[in-house]
Amino acid sequence: MALTFNGDDSVSYAERVSPVWPYTRAVLLTLCAVLMLSSLAFAVVWMVRKLLGKMKGVGHLSVRGMPLLAVLCFLSFPFFANGLNGAAIGTLNFFTLGIFLASILFPLLAVLSLVLALRVPKEEINRGVRLHSLLVSLACSIVAVFLASWGLIGIRLWASL
Q1: Which of 81, 140, 135, 138 is nearest to 105 (CA)?
Q2: Residue 1: inside a domain, yes or no?
Q3: pLDDT of 19-41, one tens digit each?
Q4: Cα separation of 44 and 53, whole Å?
């Protein structure tokens, strides 16, 4: 069912949908955000352990680091968007190029981190580290699919339509 309304400018078109899907999507994206932010907290723990010398001999650091890189790439979006103003939005500059590169790198790093987390032998890495890396990588991949569904992967703000 669709609703079109001619007398009020605030509603021009609306579709009736089940309320389950928007709430499910919101809960899923919130869970993904929490998992992605947890990688920042774990990174602080890893740095402290590294400084104290308790990370010697730990293998497969890429399984820990790749999801963190994906999250940092995702968190660079607001930094680059904050630098845009007025006419700078439609031109090629540091900030629009940063948005473009971050929107390309984020899904690539998300998939790469998921592959790394799945391919590491179970005997060679702590089960908790593997599970956390797998969950963060999966969360990044879900967010990347969501961004792709809105056409926000490889966005070139300087390109004409």
Answers
A1: 140
A2: no
A3: 898 899 999 999 999 999 999 99
A4: 14
